[in-house]
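Please think about what follows:
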Amino acid sequence: MNINYFKDELSEEEALSTEADAREEGVPPEQCFRTVRETMEELAYRTAVTYSDNDTPSLFYQTNLKGISCYEVGSRDDRVVKLPLSG
């Protein structure tokens, strides 16, 4: 999977149409959640989007006060999981 990271807090629509501040490619799907969480925490990224191998957007991540919210692209209110900040 490929991951786009953004230093600003963006809406899903903005993140899908904005050039990423950083991109990580070839992340195994089973490591994606951990990779996103660790990278967002370490480098203070506010938003991230994961893409499947055929470059279809799949998951949207956003940092908030309680951790990192994650949901499927296009489902906005249907939260998949909340990833607590490590620490």
Summary: The helical segments are 12-17, 32-43. The chain has a mean pLDDT of 87.
